[in-house]
Protein backbone atom coordinates (compact mmCIF):
# COMPACT_ATOMS: atom_id res chain seq x y z
CA UNK A 1 0.00 0.00 0.00
CA UNK A 2 2.86 2.38 0.82
CA UNK A 3 4.44 1.72 -2.57
CA UNK A 4 1.17 2.48 -4.39
CA UNK A 5 0.63 5.64 -2.36
CA UNK A 6 4.17 6.74 -3.09
CA UNK A 7 3.67 6.35 -6.81
CA UNK A 8 0.43 8.34 -6.69
CA UNK A 9 2.03 11.10 -4.60
CA UNK A 10 4.90 11.49 -7.08
CA UNK A 11 2.69 11.76 -10.16
CA UNK A 12 3.04 14.98 -12.07
CA UNK A 13 1.48 16.89 -14.97
CA UNK A 14 -1.06 15.14 -17.14
CA UNK A 15 -0.66 11.84 -15.30
CA UNK A 16 -1.78 13.41 -12.04
CA UNK A 17 -4.74 15.08 -13.77
CA UNK A 18 -5.72 11.80 -15.46
CA UNK A 19 -5.70 9.82 -12.20
CA UNK A 20 -7.79 12.52 -10.50
CA UNK A 21 -10.25 12.52 -13.42
CA UNK A 22 -10.56 8.72 -13.41
CA UNK A 23 -10.98 8.62 -9.62
CA UNK A 24 -13.85 11.10 -9.88
CA UNK A 25 -15.49 9.20 -12.75
CA UNK A 26 -15.15 5.96 -10.79
CA UNK A 27 -17.00 7.51 -7.84
CA UNK A 28 -20.20 7.77 -9.90
CA UNK A 29 -20.61 4.00 -9.58
CA UNK A 30 -21.60 4.66 -5.96
CA UNK A 31 -24.67 6.62 -7.07
CA UNK A 32 -28.00 5.30 -8.35
CA UNK A 33 -28.71 3.15 -10.26
CA UNK A 34 -25.40 1.32 -9.66
CA UNK A 35 -25.17 1.79 -5.87
CA UNK A 36 -21.68 0.26 -5.67
CA UNK A 37 -20.58 2.40 -2.71
CA UNK A 38 -17.45 0.30 -2.07
CA UNK A 39 -15.78 2.06 -5.00
CA UNK A 40 -15.49 5.18 -2.84
CA UNK A 41 -13.04 3.34 -0.58
CA UNK A 42 -10.74 3.39 -3.60
CA UNK A 43 -11.43 6.78 -5.18
CA UNK A 44 -11.16 8.92 -2.05
CA UNK A 45 -7.86 7.40 -0.80
CA UNK A 46 -6.51 8.08 -4.30
CA UNK A 47 -7.65 11.68 -3.91
CA UNK A 48 -5.90 11.94 -0.52
CA UNK A 49 -2.62 10.65 -1.93
CA UNK A 50 -2.86 12.99 -4.91
CA UNK A 51 -3.30 15.89 -2.49
CA UNK A 52 -0.32 14.68 -0.44
CA UNK A 53 1.78 15.46 -3.50
CA UNK A 54 0.03 18.73 -4.37
CA UNK A 55 2.65 21.04 -2.87
CA UNK A 56 3.15 24.47 -4.35
CA UNK A 57 6.43 26.35 -4.56
CA UNK A 58 7.58 27.64 -1.17
CA UNK A 59 8.40 31.00 -2.76
CA UNK A 60 4.81 31.50 -3.94
CA UNK A 61 2.12 33.22 -1.91
CA UNK A 62 -0.37 31.06 -0.03
CA UNK A 63 -2.99 31.41 -2.75
CA UNK A 64 -0.67 30.21 -5.50
CA UNK A 65 0.49 27.34 -3.34
CA UNK A 66 -3.11 26.10 -3.33
CA UNK A 67 -3.34 25.91 -7.12
CA UNK A 68 -2.07 22.30 -7.41
CA UNK A 69 -4.62 21.16 -4.81
CA UNK A 70 -7.38 23.10 -6.53
CA UNK A 71 -6.45 21.53 -9.88
CA UNK A 72 -6.64 18.01 -8.45
CA UNK A 73 -10.08 18.67 -6.98
CA UNK A 74 -11.23 20.25 -10.21
CA UNK A 75 -10.15 17.24 -12.30
CA UNK A 76 -11.73 14.88 -9.76
CA UNK A 77 -14.97 16.89 -9.94
CA UNK A 78 -14.90 17.10 -13.72
CA UNK A 79 -14.63 13.32 -13.96
CA UNK A 80 -17.36 12.85 -11.37
CA UNK A 81 -19.88 15.23 -12.91
CA UNK A 82 -19.12 14.27 -16.51
CA UNK A 83 -19.69 10.58 -15.76
CA UNK A 84 -22.67 11.34 -13.54
CA UNK A 85 -24.53 13.94 -15.63
CA UNK A 86 -23.94 12.96 -19.27
CA UNK A 87 -27.62 12.01 -19.52
CA UNK A 88 -28.61 15.70 -19.33
CA UNK A 89 -27.92 15.81 -23.05
CA UNK A 90 -30.83 13.43 -23.69
CA UNK A 91 -33.25 16.30 -23.11
CA UNK A 92 -31.73 18.20 -26.02
CA UNK A 93 -32.25 15.28 -28.38
CA UNK A 94 -36.03 15.30 -27.91
CA UNK A 95 -36.07 18.23 -30.35
CA UNK A 96 -32.71 17.53 -31.94
CA UNK A 97 -33.34 19.74 -34.97
CA UNK A 98 -33.50 22.79 -32.73
CA UNK A 99 -31.19 22.00 -29.83
CA UNK A 100 -28.60 19.38 -30.85
CA UNK A 101 -26.08 22.22 -31.23
CA UNK A 102 -26.23 22.77 -27.45
CA UNK A 103 -25.38 19.15 -26.62
CA UNK A 104 -21.65 19.67 -25.93
CA UNK A 105 -22.38 22.77 -23.85
CA UNK A 106 -24.78 20.82 -21.61
CA UNK A 107 -22.84 17.55 -21.39
CA UNK A 108 -19.42 19.15 -20.90
CA UNK A 109 -20.23 22.69 -19.79
CA UNK A 110 -22.22 21.78 -16.67
CA UNK A 111 -19.48 19.44 -15.33
CA UNK A 112 -16.84 22.09 -16.13
CA UNK A 113 -18.64 24.56 -13.88
CA UNK A 114 -19.62 22.16 -11.09
CA UNK A 115 -16.02 20.91 -10.89
CA UNK A 116 -15.04 24.27 -9.39
CA UNK A 117 -16.89 23.31 -6.21
CA UNK A 118 -14.70 20.25 -5.72
CA UNK A 119 -11.63 22.31 -6.61
CA UNK A 120 -12.67 24.65 -3.82
CA UNK A 121 -13.14 21.65 -1.50
CA UNK A 122 -9.60 20.34 -2.03
CA UNK A 123 -8.09 23.83 -1.78
CA UNK A 124 -9.79 24.35 1.59
CA UNK A 125 -8.63 20.90 2.69
CA UNK A 126 -5.04 21.66 1.67
CA UNK A 127 -5.08 24.77 3.88
CA UNK A 128 -5.64 22.46 6.88
CA UNK A 129 -3.51 19.57 5.63
CA UNK A 130 -1.29 17.41 7.80
CA UNK A 131 0.47 14.07 7.42
CA UNK A 132 -1.92 12.14 9.68
CA UNK A 133 -5.65 11.66 10.22
CA UNK A 134 -6.04 15.43 10.27
CA UNK A 135 -5.92 15.50 6.48
CA UNK A 136 -8.85 13.07 6.33
CA UNK A 137 -10.86 15.42 8.54
CA UNK A 138 -9.74 18.38 6.40
CA UNK A 139 -10.92 16.69 3.20
CA UNK A 140 -14.27 15.81 4.79
CA UNK A 141 -14.73 19.40 5.95
CA UNK A 142 -13.81 20.78 2.51
CA UNK A 143 -16.30 18.54 0.72
CA UNK A 144 -19.00 19.16 3.32
CA UNK A 145 -18.56 22.91 2.80
CA UNK A 146 -18.54 22.60 -1.00
CA UNK A 147 -21.67 20.44 -1.06
CA UNK A 148 -23.45 22.93 1.19
CA UNK A 149 -22.52 25.78 -1.16
CA UNK A 150 -23.71 23.72 -4.11
CA UNK A 151 -27.16 23.76 -2.54
CA UNK A 152 -27.72 27.46 -3.22
CA UNK A 153 -24.90 29.24 -5.13
CA UNK A 154 -25.79 30.23 -8.71
CA UNK A 155 -29.41 29.08 -8.14
CA UNK A 156 -28.11 25.79 -6.67
CA UNK A 157 -27.69 22.31 -8.11
CA UNK A 158 -26.91 19.75 -5.34
CA UNK A 159 -27.38 16.77 -7.66
CA UNK A 160 -25.52 13.58 -6.67
CA UNK A 161 -24.07 15.01 -3.48
CA UNK A 162 -21.42 12.62 -2.14
CA UNK A 163 -23.58 11.73 0.87
CA UNK A 164 -26.04 9.84 -1.34
CA UNK A 165 -23.31 7.30 -2.04
CA UNK A 166 -23.55 6.18 1.60
CA UNK A 167 -27.33 5.65 1.37
CA UNK A 168 -28.10 3.09 -1.35
CA UNK A 169 -30.83 1.23 0.59
CA UNK A 170 -33.29 2.14 3.39
CA UNK A 171 -31.09 0.40 5.99
CA UNK A 172 -28.36 2.95 5.26
CA UNK A 173 -30.66 5.96 4.83
CA UNK A 174 -31.85 6.41 8.40
CA UNK A 175 -28.82 8.35 9.71
CA UNK A 176 -29.68 11.32 7.48
CA UNK A 177 -32.78 11.91 9.61
CA UNK A 178 -30.38 13.05 12.36
CA UNK A 179 -27.34 14.44 10.52
CA UNK A 180 -29.08 16.08 7.56
CA UNK A 181 -27.31 16.13 4.20
CA UNK A 182 -24.64 18.58 5.44
CA UNK A 183 -23.49 16.13 8.08
CA UNK A 184 -23.96 13.09 5.85
CA UNK A 185 -21.82 14.57 3.05
CA UNK A 186 -18.96 15.31 5.43
CA UNK A 187 -19.14 12.00 7.29
CA UNK A 188 -19.32 10.01 4.06
CA UNK A 189 -16.11 11.58 2.73
CA UNK A 190 -14.41 11.07 6.12
CA UNK A 191 -15.27 7.36 6.17
CA UNK A 192 -14.49 6.78 2.48
CA UNK A 193 -11.06 8.46 2.80
CA UNK A 194 -9.92 6.71 6.00
CA UNK A 195 -8.29 3.74 4.16
CA UNK A 196 -5.67 6.23 2.91
CA UNK A 197 -4.11 5.91 6.38
CA UNK A 198 -3.03 2.35 5.53
CA UNK A 199 -0.15 3.87 3.60
CA UNK A 200 0.99 5.92 6.61
CA UNK A 201 2.47 5.12 9.96
CA UNK A 202 0.45 7.55 12.03
CA UNK A 203 -3.09 7.07 13.31
CA UNK A 204 -3.66 3.78 11.46
CA UNK A 205 -5.28 2.15 14.50
CA UNK A 206 -7.27 5.27 15.30
CA UNK A 207 -8.49 5.42 11.70
CA UNK A 208 -9.49 1.76 11.73
CA UNK A 209 -11.35 2.22 15.01
CA UNK A 210 -13.19 5.29 13.71
CA UNK A 211 -14.05 3.54 10.44
CA UNK A 212 -15.47 0.54 12.29
CA UNK A 213 -17.35 2.69 14.80
CA UNK A 214 -18.92 5.01 12.22
CA UNK A 215 -19.94 2.19 9.88
CA UNK A 216 -21.36 0.17 12.78
CA UNK A 217 -23.31 3.20 14.03
CA UNK A 218 -24.62 3.93 10.54
CA UNK A 219 -25.78 0.34 9.96
CA UNK A 220 -26.92 -0.25 13.54
CA UNK A 221 -29.02 2.90 13.68
CA UNK A 222 -30.66 1.96 10.39
CA UNK A 223 -31.44 -1.53 11.63
CA UNK A 224 -32.92 -0.29 14.91
CA UNK A 225 -35.03 2.32 13.15
CA UNK A 226 -36.40 -0.10 10.57
CA UNK A 227 -37.19 -2.82 13.11
CA UNK A 228 -38.56 -0.52 15.82
CA UNK A 229 -42.36 -0.49 16.23
CA UNK A 230 -43.85 2.18 14.02
CA UNK A 231 -45.93 4.99 15.38
CA UNK A 232 -49.61 4.10 14.81
CA UNK A 233 -51.08 5.89 11.83
CA UNK A 234 -53.35 8.73 12.84
CA UNK A 235 -55.15 8.62 9.49
CA UNK A 236 -54.94 6.87 6.13
CA UNK A 237 -55.34 8.09 2.58
CA UNK A 238 -56.41 6.04 -0.44
CA UNK A 239 -54.22 7.25 -3.30
CA UNK A 240 -53.97 6.64 -7.04
CA UNK A 241 -50.82 7.79 -8.86
CA UNK A 242 -51.06 7.98 -12.65
CA UNK A 243 -48.04 7.50 -14.93
CA UNK A 244 -49.15 8.07 -18.56
CA UNK A 245 -45.72 7.65 -20.26
CA UNK A 246 -46.60 10.30 -22.86
CA UNK A 247 -44.17 10.62 -25.76
CA UNK A 248 -42.57 14.06 -25.42
CA UNK A 249 -42.65 14.59 -29.17
CA UNK A 250 -46.46 14.60 -28.86
CA UNK A 251 -46.87 16.38 -25.54
CA UNK A 252 -47.63 19.83 -26.95
CA UNK A 253 -49.00 18.64 -30.29
CA UNK A 254 -52.51 20.12 -30.60
CA UNK A 255 -53.68 17.22 -32.77
CA UNK A 256 -53.17 14.62 -30.02
CA UNK A 257 -54.03 16.59 -26.90
CA UNK A 258 -57.50 15.11 -26.62
CA UNK A 259 -56.05 11.60 -26.86
CA UNK A 260 -53.51 12.32 -24.10
CA UNK A 261 -56.20 13.80 -21.88
CA UNK A 262 -58.46 10.81 -22.50
CA UNK A 263 -55.62 8.46 -21.53
CA UNK A 264 -55.14 10.32 -18.25
CA UNK A 265 -58.88 10.22 -17.57
CA UNK A 266 -59.08 6.51 -18.35
CA UNK A 267 -56.22 5.61 -16.00
CA UNK A 268 -57.78 7.77 -13.28
CA UNK A 269 -61.26 6.28 -13.54
CA UNK A 270 -60.39 2.59 -13.63
CA UNK A 271 -61.67 0.16 -10.99
CA UNK A 272 -59.51 0.13 -7.82
CA UNK A 273 -57.07 -2.68 -7.19
CA UNK A 274 -58.54 -5.62 -5.20
CA UNK A 275 -58.62 -4.95 -1.49
CA UNK A 276 -58.29 -1.18 -1.87
CA UNK A 277 -60.97 1.46 -1.63
CA UNK A 278 -61.87 4.12 -4.12
CA UNK A 279 -59.00 6.65 -4.24
CA UNK A 280 -59.57 9.80 -2.23
CA UNK A 281 -56.65 11.47 -4.01
CA UNK A 282 -55.62 11.05 -7.65
CA UNK A 283 -52.17 12.42 -8.55
CA UNK A 284 -51.09 13.38 -12.07
CA UNK A 285 -47.47 14.25 -13.09
CA UNK A 286 -45.86 17.59 -13.90
CA UNK A 287 -47.52 19.50 -16.80
CA UNK A 288 -49.66 16.43 -17.44
CA UNK A 289 -52.65 18.45 -18.68
CA UNK A 290 -51.69 19.08 -22.34
CA UNK A 291 -53.47 22.44 -22.68
CA UNK A 292 -54.38 25.54 -20.70
CA UNK A 293 -57.58 25.31 -18.69
CA UNK A 294 -58.36 28.89 -19.78
CA UNK A 295 -58.48 27.62 -23.37
CA UNK A 296 -60.42 24.46 -22.56
CA UNK A 297 -62.85 25.12 -19.68
CA UNK A 298 -64.83 22.08 -20.82
CA UNK A 299 -61.98 19.89 -19.54
CA UNK A 300 -62.73 20.98 -15.97
CA UNK A 301 -66.33 19.91 -16.46
CA UNK A 302 -65.13 16.52 -17.69
CA UNK A 303 -62.87 16.15 -14.67
CA UNK A 304 -65.74 16.99 -12.35
CA UNK A 305 -67.83 14.28 -13.98
CA UNK A 306 -64.98 11.77 -13.69
CA UNK A 307 -64.33 12.45 -9.99
CA UNK A 308 -66.71 10.85 -7.52
CA UNK A 309 -68.05 12.42 -4.33
CA UNK A 310 -65.23 13.44 -2.02
CA UNK A 311 -62.45 12.69 -4.51
CA UNK A 312 -59.72 15.19 -5.34
CA UNK A 313 -57.30 15.43 -8.26
CA UNK A 314 -53.90 17.09 -7.96
CA UNK A 315 -52.55 17.66 -11.46
CA UNK A 316 -49.44 19.27 -12.89
CA UNK A 317 -50.49 22.05 -15.26
CA UNK A 318 -49.28 25.16 -17.01
CA UNK A 319 -51.11 28.01 -15.31
CA UNK A 320 -51.75 31.29 -17.10
CA UNK A 321 -52.12 34.75 -15.61
CA UNK A 322 -52.60 38.12 -17.22
CA UNK A 323 -54.85 37.43 -20.18
CA UNK A 324 -54.50 35.53 -23.41
CA UNK A 325 -51.43 34.11 -25.10
CA UNK A 326 -51.45 37.11 -27.40
CA UNK A 327 -50.98 39.45 -24.43
CA UNK A 328 -47.33 40.40 -23.89
CA UNK A 329 -47.97 40.69 -20.14
CA UNK A 330 -49.20 37.12 -19.83
CA UNK A 331 -47.26 35.04 -17.31
CA UNK A 332 -47.07 31.27 -17.27
CA UNK A 333 -46.38 29.13 -14.21
CA UNK A 334 -45.37 25.51 -13.85
CA UNK A 335 -47.95 24.58 -11.23
CA UNK A 336 -49.98 21.95 -9.49
CA UNK A 337 -53.70 22.52 -9.02
CA UNK A 338 -56.21 20.82 -6.76
CA UNK A 339 -59.55 20.03 -8.44
CA UNK A 340 -62.58 18.90 -6.45
CA UNK A 341 -65.48 16.64 -7.41
CA UNK A 342 -67.40 19.57 -8.88
CA UNK A 343 -64.63 20.35 -11.37
CA UNK A 344 -63.52 23.51 -9.57
CA UNK A 345 -59.89 24.46 -8.96
CA UNK A 346 -59.74 24.85 -5.18
CA UNK A 347 -56.02 25.55 -4.80
CA UNK A 348 -52.84 26.05 -6.81
CA UNK A 349 -49.13 26.05 -5.99
CA UNK A 350 -46.57 27.39 -8.45
CA UNK A 351 -43.03 26.11 -8.89
CA UNK A 352 -40.73 28.42 -6.95
CA UNK A 353 -37.30 27.07 -7.96
CA UNK A 354 -37.15 27.02 -11.77
CA UNK A 355 -34.57 25.20 -13.90
CA UNK A 356 -32.20 27.70 -15.59
CA UNK A 357 -32.26 27.37 -19.41
CA UNK A 358 -34.91 24.63 -19.11
CA UNK A 359 -37.82 26.71 -17.80
CA UNK A 360 -36.49 30.22 -18.13
CA UNK A 361 -33.52 31.97 -19.69
CA UNK A 362 -31.31 33.78 -17.17
CA UNK A 363 -29.91 37.14 -18.29
CA UNK A 364 -32.53 37.16 -21.03
CA UNK A 365 -31.57 40.49 -22.60
CA UNK A 366 -27.87 39.65 -22.78
CA UNK A 367 -28.13 36.03 -23.93
CA UNK A 368 -30.99 36.80 -26.27
CA UNK A 369 -28.63 38.97 -28.33
CA UNK A 370 -26.66 35.82 -29.12
CA UNK A 371 -29.79 33.96 -30.22
CA UNK A 372 -29.99 31.81 -27.11
CA UNK A 373 -33.34 30.63 -25.82
CA UNK A 374 -34.67 28.21 -23.22
CA UNK A 375 -33.96 24.68 -24.23
CA UNK A 376 -36.38 22.00 -23.15
CA UNK A 377 -39.31 22.68 -20.85
CA UNK A 378 -42.10 23.57 -23.22
CA UNK A 379 -43.52 26.14 -25.60
CA UNK A 380 -43.34 29.03 -23.14
CA UNK A 381 -41.05 30.63 -20.57
CA UNK A 382 -42.14 30.21 -16.96
CA UNK A 383 -42.27 32.73 -14.15
CA UNK A 384 -41.30 31.67 -10.64
CA UNK A 385 -43.94 31.37 -7.94
CA UNK A 386 -43.72 33.52 -4.82
CA UNK A 387 -44.32 30.96 -2.11
CA UNK A 388 -45.23 27.37 -1.38
CA UNK A 389 -48.06 26.28 0.88
CA UNK A 390 -49.70 22.96 1.79
CA UNK A 391 -52.74 21.73 -0.10
CA UNK A 392 -55.65 20.45 1.99
CA UNK A 393 -56.57 16.90 0.97
CA UNK A 394 -59.65 14.82 1.84
CA UNK A 395 -59.75 13.94 5.51
CA UNK A 396 -57.99 17.14 6.53
CA UNK A 397 -54.55 15.83 5.49
CA UNK A 398 -52.10 18.49 4.32
CA UNK A 399 -49.65 17.81 1.49
CA UNK A 400 -46.68 19.99 0.57
CA UNK A 401 -46.06 19.88 -3.21
CA UNK A 402 -42.67 20.07 -4.96
CA UNK A 403 -42.37 20.19 -8.72
CA UNK A 404 -39.62 18.30 -10.53
CA UNK A 405 -36.10 18.96 -9.25
CA UNK A 406 -37.28 21.14 -6.35
CA UNK A 407 -37.26 17.90 -4.37
CA UNK A 408 -33.44 17.58 -4.57
CA UNK A 409 -32.92 20.63 -2.31
CA UNK A 410 -32.78 19.50 1.35
CA UNK A 411 -33.27 22.99 2.77
CA UNK A 412 -36.22 23.59 0.44
CA UNK A 413 -37.98 20.34 1.37
CA UNK A 414 -38.41 20.86 5.09
CA UNK A 415 -41.76 19.55 6.22
CA UNK A 416 -42.88 20.62 9.67
CA UNK A 417 -45.62 18.45 11.15
CA UNK A 418 -47.42 21.66 12.04
CA UNK A 419 -47.75 22.57 8.35
CA UNK A 420 -47.92 19.28 6.39
CA UNK A 421 -47.98 15.50 6.82
CA UNK A 422 -47.15 14.40 3.29
CA UNK A 423 -44.67 15.26 0.52
CA UNK A 424 -45.98 15.31 -3.05
CA UNK A 425 -43.50 15.37 -5.91
CA UNK A 426 -44.66 15.64 -9.53
CA UNK A 427 -42.11 15.44 -12.32
CA UNK A 428 -41.50 14.64 -15.98
CA UNK A 429 -38.33 12.58 -16.21
CA UNK A 430 -39.24 11.42 -19.71
CA UNK A 431 -36.81 14.08 -20.97
CA UNK A 432 -33.95 11.80 -19.92
CA UNK A 433 -35.21 8.41 -21.09
CA UNK A 434 -33.91 5.20 -19.53
CA UNK A 435 -30.65 6.71 -18.30
CA UNK A 436 -29.24 7.07 -14.76
CA UNK A 437 -30.96 10.47 -14.45
CA UNK A 438 -34.46 9.32 -13.41
CA UNK A 439 -33.00 6.83 -10.92
CA UNK A 440 -30.80 9.49 -9.34
CA UNK A 441 -33.74 11.89 -9.18
CA UNK A 442 -35.93 9.30 -7.48
CA UNK A 443 -33.23 8.42 -4.94
CA UNK A 444 -32.95 12.04 -3.86
CA UNK A 445 -36.74 12.30 -3.48
CA UNK A 446 -36.68 9.08 -1.46
CA UNK A 447 -34.12 10.58 0.94
CA UNK A 448 -36.37 13.64 1.48
CA UNK A 449 -39.02 11.31 2.91
CA UNK A 450 -36.52 9.82 5.37
CA UNK A 451 -35.13 13.22 6.40
CA UNK A 452 -38.54 14.62 7.21
CA UNK A 453 -40.16 11.44 8.51
CA UNK A 454 -43.27 11.70 6.31
CA UNK A 455 -44.57 9.69 3.33
CA UNK A 456 -43.76 10.67 -0.24
CA UNK A 457 -46.13 10.43 -3.21
CA UNK A 458 -44.35 10.77 -6.53
CA UNK A 459 -45.98 11.00 -9.95
CA UNK A 460 -43.80 11.03 -13.06
CA UNK A 461 -44.87 11.22 -16.67
CA UNK A 462 -42.40 8.42 -17.29
CA UNK A 463 -40.46 6.84 -14.42
CA UNK A 464 -40.27 6.61 -11.55
CA UNK A 465 -43.70 6.99 -9.91
CA UNK A 466 -43.87 5.59 -6.39
CA UNK A 467 -45.28 5.59 -2.88
CA UNK A 468 -42.51 5.82 -0.27
CA UNK A 469 -43.03 5.47 3.47
CA UNK A 470 -41.42 7.75 6.11
CA UNK A 471 -38.44 5.40 6.42
CA UNK A 472 -37.64 5.34 2.72
CA UNK A 473 -39.20 1.98 1.89
CA UNK A 474 -40.93 1.75 -1.47
CA UNK A 475 -44.50 0.55 -0.95
CA UNK A 476 -45.27 0.44 -4.67
CA UNK A 477 -43.76 1.86 -7.85
CA UNK A 478 -43.98 1.98 -11.63
CA UNK A 479 -40.83 1.47 -13.68
CA UNK A 480 -39.57 3.63 -16.51
CA UNK A 481 -41.64 3.24 -19.72
CA UNK A 482 -44.53 1.68 -17.79
CA UNK A 483 -47.98 3.15 -18.39
CA UNK A 484 -50.48 2.62 -15.62
CA UNK A 485 -51.59 3.64 -12.15
CA UNK A 486 -50.61 2.76 -8.60
CA UNK A 487 -53.30 2.26 -5.97
CA UNK A 488 -52.15 2.41 -2.36
CA UNK A 489 -53.49 2.92 1.13
CA UNK A 490 -51.02 5.36 2.68
CA UNK A 491 -50.72 5.55 6.49
CA UNK A 492 -50.31 9.15 7.58
CA UNK A 493 -48.03 9.53 10.57
CA UNK A 494 -45.05 11.74 11.32
CA UNK A 495 -41.95 9.74 12.21
CA UNK A 496 -39.38 12.54 12.27
CA UNK A 497 -36.68 12.05 14.90
CA UNK A 498 -35.52 15.67 15.00
CA UNK A 499 -36.79 18.89 13.49
CA UNK A 500 -35.31 20.38 10.33
CA UNK A 501 -33.70 23.10 12.44
CA UNK A 502 -32.04 20.53 14.69
CA UNK A 503 -30.75 18.63 11.64
CA UNK A 504 -29.02 21.81 10.48
CA UNK A 505 -27.47 22.26 13.92
CA UNK A 506 -26.31 18.64 13.97
CA UNK A 507 -24.76 18.98 10.53
CA UNK A 508 -22.94 22.16 11.55
CA UNK A 509 -21.67 20.47 14.72
CA UNK A 510 -20.21 17.63 12.64
CA UNK A 511 -18.52 20.19 10.41
CA UNK A 512 -17.22 22.05 13.46
CA UNK A 513 -15.66 18.89 14.92
CA UNK A 514 -13.96 18.12 11.61
CA UNK A 515 -12.52 21.59 11.11
CA UNK A 516 -11.33 21.85 14.72
CA UNK A 517 -9.67 18.42 14.50
CA UNK A 518 -7.93 19.21 11.22
CA UNK A 519 -6.88 22.69 12.40
CA UNK A 520 -5.48 21.34 15.68
CA UNK A 521 -3.45 18.61 13.99
CA UNK A 522 -2.26 21.06 11.33
CA UNK A 523 -1.01 23.48 14.00
CA UNK A 524 0.62 20.65 15.97
CA UNK A 525 2.51 19.53 12.86
CA UNK A 526 3.68 23.08 12.15
CA UNK A 527 4.95 23.42 15.72
CA UNK A 528 6.85 20.13 15.46
CA UNK A 529 8.49 21.25 12.22
CA UNK A 530 9.49 24.60 13.68
UniProtKB/TrEMBL annotation:
SUPFAM superfamilies: Carbon-nitrogen hydrolase. GO terms for molecular function: N-acyltransferase activity. The chain crosses the membrane at residues 12-30, 36-56, 68-89, 101-129, 136-159, 171-194, 206-226, 505-523. Its main location: membrane. It is an enzyme of class 2 (transferase). Coiled coil: none annotated. It comes from the Bacteria. It holds the Pfam family CN_hydrolase. Keywords: Acyltransferase, Cell membrane, Lipoprotein, Membrane, Transferase, Transmembrane, Transmembrane helix. The keyword GTP-binding does not apply. The keyword Cell membrane applies. Residues 242-492 form the CN hydrolase domain. Its EC number is 2.3.1.269. It is found in: Cell membrane. GO terms for cellular component: plasma membrane. Pathway: Protein modification; lipoprotein biosynthesis (N-acyl transfer). GO terms for biological process: lipoprotein biosynthetic process. PROSITE patterns: CN_HYDROLASE. It is a multi-pass membrane protein. Belongs to the CN hydrolase family. Apolipoprotein N-acyltransferase subfamily. Catalyzes the phospholipid dependent N-acylation of the N-terminal cysteine of apolipoprotein, the last step in lipoprotein maturation. NCBIfam families: lnt (TIGR00546). This is Apolipoprotein N-acyltransferase. It comes from Mesorhizobium tianshanense. The gene is lnt.
